[in-house]
Please model this.
Amino acid sequence: MRKGERRLETLIHGLFLAAGLVTVGCVLLITVYLIISGIPAIREIGLWEFLLGDTWASTSAEPRFGILPFLLTSVSGMAGAMVIGVPVGFFSAVYLAKAAPQRVRVVSEHIVSLLAGIPSVVYGLVAMMVLVPWVRSTFHVPDGAGLLVAILVLAVMILPSIIKVSVTALEAVPKEYEDASLALGATAAETWFRVSVPAAKSGIAAAVVLGVGRAIGEATAVMMVAGNAPNMPGLFQSVRFLTTAIVSEMAYSGGLQRQALFSIALVLYLFILLINAALNFFLKRDRGT
Amino acid sequence: MRKIKDILRMGLMELSAALTCALSMCIVGYVLLKGLPHLSWQLLTTAPSYLEDTVGILPDILNTLYIIVTAIALVLPLGVGAAVYLNEYAQNKRLVEVIEYAAETLSGIPSIIYGLVGMLVFSNLLGSCLLAGALTLVVMNLPTVMRTTQESLKTVPQSYREGAFGLGAGKWRVIRTVVLPGCVDGVITGCILSVGRMVGESAALLYTAGFAHTLNGFFSGLGSSGATLSVALYVYAKEPGPGRQEAAFAIAAILMLLTLAIDLLAALVKRRFQRRLL
Model:
């Protein structure tokens, strides 16, 4: 190989390596920036006062920065969405992966990926126009916007992730397992639920964790329907999530208030890192067996 | 007893699947029914005017185009480059793991965090402008392009590479002439998916690209604040005033049509891809 050519090869190798390292750089950048901008407010407010304080009054004369209402709202909103979304997603996934006729399956998978593609603002708009008035008139509350509507929206939004990942996991179950079960006299449905589902449990767990991540991280759709007052969670309360707490005050905040918003982002980021680690754990375990 | 359980299971499964499908059809139908009637020529071709109190979304359409073109132009080389590195160059297993873990982490980060960090990094450097928004979107979509390219690189048969090496080609030549043409499908799929995400993105753009609705050319647009369609929808949905709600629904209908188109396009590419493999 000529010298110039070798130099070119090294250069190009370097360029590709640089492109590969960009992702790592981005993750580091995000982490470092969030820590640097999130720590000062926590220091000033005090970690426990910040995490466990039950009042958020960032603009009052004596500002209070307790994010417990946001934390509890995010967790209960996520939990509510899971309670509704996981069973529906799970049964749909088993149906699509195992029971559905080919035709139905192709069409439904298109529909599910369409559901995944709908922008969150559109979910927010539809919920704002349909669900909020519905909740108001059905439950006779002064304002329909609140935790209940947010839960319903999130439940729909996590469906596609849960279904897609579960279907993939269920499809990867070796056919021999199912054949053996059928040969032993189990019915088709028994085989799916007693053999296929346990065999795919890591993948299904990953699907659920993915749903948790989406539900915790969603901002705009929730912002449009949750009412957005910093109350403790209650089904018909107007509430703020961790995400919407950041969105709602970012535009006009300054000083300690702004720094406190960055601290909320840091808390949210830690949540997401935890969820990612769990996701990775389940996916790795699946690959291992 | 077994029979009852079986029927119950089948019933639950069919009910859930039917519910999922019915829900999405209802959402699509509702948005199109409410939105399409408001799509007027005037709405599509003018900027909003506070003097005449009319709403127009032409600036938002252009902003969306500008931001997507810029972000795709930047994310393609980075994402494809990273994938090629992982698949063709990398020897160090540890490094591959680190890069892949970083990509997985990136794809799990919610868009509001991207928006916040984008604001701290890019908007501090450039001001609140479309370019800052586009850069934020680049980081967000990097993992998508990387993953689809990687998957398609894996389907390029090893024998092609060996054949080219055997003929005396250098590494770069093999990548340029054999490997990259073989993974075009993955790159296109990655682009389509990214465009879909960029069109629908709002939280990451609110505080990086801003909310302005002024008509701009491409280069002056990149340097000034501007709302994309999704951001405009978010703003109009909460803003009282004549024509705002209608505009929000019209934008929702446009976004829905785009989503449908993108879905169809992705399916078409996938089908072509599979046919080639057989």
Q: What stands out?
A: Residues 3-52 of chain A form one domain. The first helix of chain A runs from residue 3 to 45. Chain A has two domains: 3-52, 69-288. Chain A touches chain B through 86 residues (CB under 8 Å).
